[in-house]
């Protein structure tokens, strides 16, 4: 029976290992910095985390609306908050670097188990594991500054550290994962118990890691929302992609797994598990069990009302790609006495089997890139719309601002501390009306009963409507900020399509809590 000893390779000298790690980190940072020239707009949740960091810094934390509380991103963004307008860029660098490192760690783990071919296949399939319609894809996570890429990196590196018998490092990495996703809690708890029993000198660290989870998940959220279960309640609220209200939510979760794993990944993972079972090789079997356990946790949570969205599965799907690389490489190694050209032909055959699915998934990646560029343009025009409306100070002075539900955190971040931004028109004095993405409907809807709004500025595809006395008076702009007005003295036509600009689509009613 094989055990950890079989995969615990001799460690390089500490100095060389540190230099190699710093080199990998430097390359990932450089690539991430260069990628900012192509697109640099944060997604919904990352903007929320930045707002939390700023609020924590000023002791004004509010977590009672929007995204559900996540401790690790909030802690990092609290550290970044003093940098002001540079904080979004710095967070993006951190998130993208972590997402790139997930590929490095996937390669290293698979290569450790079955050689370089396994490593290459694992990294490639992680990149190609994409379904834009499910808000899932390595490129989406990389481009939007999501925490899913760093989460995968933490999980994969934790496995590597355990195989190196570096239990303390593995425990801390699992703690980091548990401060991003609650699905990682059982794995942290199980490993802490293992460390407690196997390494008495680390019992204090094991106990602190367990204690840190409820403290960091519950206490700040209670201070920000007044509810001990605030994050849980918001996560269970209606979100666009939630499967909680399906007739069989767990089946929907399993459907995501099937949709996201291409046939070569499924076949390769099954090969890896089958060969490992025959050889009684525990490491590969443990990876499969961990992945299945994580999927089961997401499925059970969906059954009790949690969203169960596809991106919650990033950990097990990354492990599946590692297993796929291992399976195909080990299957190729079964060919007896293959040398030279024969071995090359085997490798070519393995790659050829993967190619059709890889080409199809590459099309999804291209769509992800297109979507990221569109988000970048949309975010840029939102900033210009804010400037055209007088800037952040004018918006704060006016009172409540309303915008597309998906743009609430982005506008809140720009308006600054004390911003009151919602997606409800009725309490608002200003409305930033636009689409969630190019080709999507305008929101929020301004109805006939929402009286008094006039169009004061436009930065296509955004329209800025106002009924704020500090912005308009007697049909003309007050002295002060310069605006690019359009027919200030005319009331806004309130039917949704009549204020359309480049995206002439019917509007939709916004829904609350669009992201968990």
Quote the beta fraction. 5-15%
Low-confidence stretches: 472-516
The string of secondary-structure elements, in order, is HHHHHHHHHHHHHHHHHHEHEEEEEEE
Helix content: 55-70%
What does this structure look like?
- By secondary structure, the chain is mainly alpha-helical.
- Among the domains are: 4-235, no CATH class; 374-499, no CATH class.
- It has helices at 4-7, 14-35, 44-57, 71-80, 87-114, 116-128, 138-144, 148-163, 167-178, 185-198, 203-225, 230-235, 249-260, 263-279, 282-303, 314-333, 341-388, 391-398, 408-415; strands at residues 401-403, 421-422, 430-435, 442-443, 454-459, 462-466, 472-473, 476-477.
- The strands form 2 sheets. Strands 1, 2, 3, 4, 5 and 6 form a 6-stranded mixed sheet that branches. A two-stranded antiparallel sheet has the order 7-8.
- Helix 5 (87-114) runs antiparallel to helix 6 (116-128), helix 5 runs parallel beside helix 8 (148-163) and helix 9 packs parallel to helix 11.
- It is globular.
